[in-house]
Sequence to fold (379 residues):
Amino acid sequence: MKEWGSSVAWGYARQTDTEHALPEDTDKILETAPVPLGRDEVVGDAFPDFPDGPGARDAVWFEACAYSDMWVSEALNRGVGHFVVNAIGTPDQKARWWDPIIATGGKTGFGLSEPGIGSDTSHLSTTAVRDGDSWVINGSKMFCSLGALAEYIVVFARVAGDTTSSGIKAFVVERGHPGFTVVKANEDKLGLHCWTTSQLAFDDVVVPQEHLLGWRPDTDTGAIGGLNAGLAGLNDNRPNVSNQSIGVASAALDVTTALLRERRLGFAPHKWSTISDELDRMAWALDRGRQLNIAAQWLKDNGIHNRTQVSVAKSFGPVNADRVIRRCMQLLGPDGTSTELLLEKWYRDVKILDIFEGTGQIMRVLVGRSLMGRSAASS
Fold:
């Protein structure tokens, strides 16, 4: 996979960055990979000695695809909305909106972020008003992954009149639903230019009662879980994002190591010893992030509560990947920031990965609260 990534996939990375889109012949390019790019196939054929288990497969799959560049990850991306369905949906809802995505590899969207609120979901302004056996949704969302392509969006909206966090519920809005509009298919952002993150509008979108995730006929207006329960569904994907950051940084480290070794004769022995040691320590840091990701995945595989471990993994992986790529750029001097190499692109990409699925700062707050209590972490 690494050889294919560096010799084939990297050749399209700059194009996807400048054109803000996947290559037109994406499917044909992916077919040239040495193994089928399904999670099980990548691990079984390309990494036969890798630890067994679904979590380990996820870890190596996400890292391997990201090493080949994040455009490959986007081409294979399903989104994260279905994780919320799985976390708080009823059996009937899972059968309707989770099972088909897993079976066919369809795409789902996650509608939480709104203009002007950042990560502070307490100010979420999209509303849902009960109208008989239906809900009427009004509001706007931004940076919705795969929003313009998804089969459905999981939209977080505040039930009118309820100002608490439990008043924020998750609704399924399917593609093409009346009143649902894609305002901008792919928003401008620092990195991950080819990743579809969309601005969406919901104008009097009427959805049936059963589109409220967690709703059961015997609970009437109630639904199992609110915002926190819905966000808990992201636990399944946060280690994957961290794995992606490890893959991107590993690519940058491999490029840097190869170039510096070509220039080795230009360094005094003591200088090369320092550089070589630094390269080793960066590789160690990435491996440490890799192990944290696998540990979080292992807990999930075994049905063990893993919110803290997931937060540790997500807070460690992207931020250290950022440091590794930045240091690689510094070691290469002017070449490190040149568009002749991909390091500056990968650096912008990994910055976004630190934000996706909960920022590194939020993850560190969650870790602090789990260790020392809520008041200690917020002081």
